[in-house]
Amino acid sequence: MITKRVSRPLRVTCRLLGSVALVAAIIFVYYRLVPVNSLTVALTLVLAILGIATWWGFTESIAAAVAGVLGLNYFFLPPIGEFTISDPENWVALAVFLVTAITASELSVRARRRAAEAIARSREVERLYALGQALLLSGSVRTAAREIVNSIIRTFEIPAAVFFAQSNGEFFRSDERTTSISDEQLRRVAETGDPLIDADGQIAVVPVRLGGHSIGSLGFAGCTLSTAALHALANLVAIGIERARSIDEANKAEAARQSEVLKATLLDALAHDLKTPLTSIKGAVTHLLAKRRDAEEKELLTIANEEADRLNRLVVEVLEMARIEASKLHPDRAPHSIDDIVEATLKAHEESLKGREVRLQIPESLPAADVDFEFIQQVLKQLLDNSVKYSRPGTPVVISAELAGERIVISVADQGQGIPVGEQHKIFDKFYRGLTWRDKVPGTGLGLSIAKGIVEAHGGKIWVSSEPGKGTVISFAVPIFKGELVR
Amino acid sequence: MSGAKILVVDDEPQIRRMMRATLTSSGYQVDEAKTGEEALETFRTFLPDLVLLDLNMPGMGGLEACRSMREGSDVPIIILTVRNAEKEKVEALDAGADDYVSKPFGMQELMARIRAALRRAPGSLQGGPHGFASDDLEIDFDQRRVRVQEKSVRLTPKEFELLRHLVAHGGKPVPHRELLQAVWGPDYGDETDYLRVFINHLRRKIEPDPSRPKYVLTEPWVGYRFAIPEDP
User: CA–CA distance from A84 to each of A42, A77, A78, A80, A418 (Å)?
Assistant: First the structure.
């Protein structure tokens, strides 16, 4: 770049001298070596001037034309050896020569410039095409951005380029020469969409947009591309980045789907493998239990049976928790009346509620809830289980429901010892068991976290309010059904 | 029905061992199969009175085996599976199973269900109706024959019992629990999903338009009833 700048005036001077020298040589040849008439000399000079115009340029050809006029006048037009012309006809001839030489030069130079421009445009198109192909092969957005910068430099022979990705605010600079373009300039062009091209063509920043949506901006240092080419390039980059982004997204979605399928299959296989031996154990034990009469044997078999049940509950709860954590819980939501869910739950757990008074406070006007019947039944069962476990036999349990905006809040209240304030926020944590109770009441510490997972999968929430010594209320809110009710 | 033949289908050898020991000691004859394909084979030669079928097996699964057996036979099929979701239960009943027990189970519970499934003796409903006839539906309870629009229709024993029980109440609604206990046995009562599936089967077979039933009607929150069309 620097060498070019110094050599340009030097080259022009050399060419000017060359042009004049060529004219002098022609005149010398015709004057001394091959005597011809002045017309031949004039035509030969026109030819030479045309050649100079075509190969070197307008300035050089003008210099040659002026030298030619002077030479013709001095050496060939009478009076020879003087810069004067006696015959008016020769004045006309000399003027025609000059006009012809200049016009022809002008035309020739224009044609040459057009050809050069056409070549430059076609080269730009070729490069854009090459860049387009390079962009099609790039992978993710990050590698695409880096590759775009490299491809631009390689394909367009631009000294340095920078790409600013607006989505994540990253700058991809080819090297330190791009520091002449500031982060701020790149950001502003991306935001406003107005290109920034400085007068001497040393810096150009163009916005990269697709369908009015801004993707970022491209900056070039020492770039000689036309404005049209810069915009075409920016469009190409926009398409390339957008393409990489959609491939990224498709890949991510596919990966998520596959991992979800894998998790579900794994959990199913795990459930099968854990429950199969339990089935053999429980089958064998319960069969013996029904046959044996001996009290000691019965006691031992009962223990084995109860422990098999406990192990099974643990397996079910751990897998359920795993399912919730793998976001594999997909509630099958439909309009259900809270009344029905409560009734079904109480019926299914008659045995464990024996000797308890269960008070229901459910208003008849309650709208239907948009929930999965089985899942909410499971939540309710868990809350009832807790109430029964952590309050004295004989004390009542209250199940209430009320409308709160677009939600139904269902609460289960007991008159147990309550939960110390410091522990209340922990009871929904996995495997957490109350300090006072962990050695007295059996359990896994998973029940309430599963209940929480289920309620949250419905877009609801669950919370506790408890007064030590008086009792505990656990409430959860689920959305009401908003569609048309068809029965 | 002691001495009845039971086919145990499960891919887990330990479960087959346990089942053989417990069932044999309770007086049943037992044969086993490891896969669905083998089950169909043994089914033809052993001619079981009842099938205990696992759902999750390599190769032909339990559901498909259940459908194949049901095509040519009314033998009671009880599904034994580790899965416990409503959806799977309905799928199994839809495939033609009579009952569904989730693993692990207590042997007493399974025995009760086996007994209930084997118990369904024809004509157990004493003094019931002998038949029913309308324009497009003819039922002969003594011959166990049903004709819909002049065409003979095959009902499974459970479907037949369900229909008989509904018709016997002559247009009055029958509660879920009562229907379950009459058709499945005294240990049943909460399995309303069983009724939903079997009532659907029944409607598909005897209703001219199953989506708008005119004979087997739902009584919301109560049960079902058989509507006797009034004479025009």
Answer: 17, 9, 8, 8, 127
Rounded to the nearest integer, the mean pLDDT of chain A is: 84
Residue B5 tokens read as 């033949």
What is the spatial distance between Cα B170 and Cα B158, in angstroms, rounded to a whole number? 19
Sequence-distant (6+) residues with CB within 8 A of B48 are B5, B6, B7, B31, B75
Rounded distance, CA A237 to CA A218, Å? Answer: 9
**A448/A383 Cα distance (integer angstroms):** 8
Distance CA B153, CA B145 (A): 8
DSSP codes joined into one string, B18-60:
HHHHHHHHTT-EEEEESSHHHHHHHHHHH--SEEEEES--SSS
Cβ atoms of B64 and B71 within 8 Å: the answer is no
- Measured CA to CA, the distance from residue A252 to residue A271 in angstroms comes to 28
Residues A36-88 have pLDDT tens digits of: 888 888 889 888 988 888 888 888 888 888 888 888 888 888 788 888 777 78
Q: Which residues contact A254 (CB under 8 A, 6 or more apart)?
A: none
Alpha carbon distance A483, A74 (integer Å): 107
For every residue of A401-435, DSSP letters joined together read: EEEETTEEEEEEE--S----HHHHTTTTSTT---T
Query: How far away is chain B from the Cα of A356, in angstroms, using its nearest Cα?
Result: 21
A275 vs B17: CB contact, 8 Å cut-off? Answer: no
Place of tokens 């034994």: B80
Closest residue on chain A to B191 (Cα): A348
Q: Could you tell me where the DSSP H helices lie in chain B? A: 13-25, 36-46, 62-72, 86-94, 107-119, 157-168, 176-183, 192-206
pLDDT at A486 over 80: no
Q: Is the ipTM of this complex over 0.85?
A: no
Interface test with B, best of A280, A292, A374 (most B CBs within 10 A): A280
> What does the block give as tokens for A125?
């198109």
* Test mutation, A265, A270, A287, A454, chain B, max B CBs within 10 A: A287
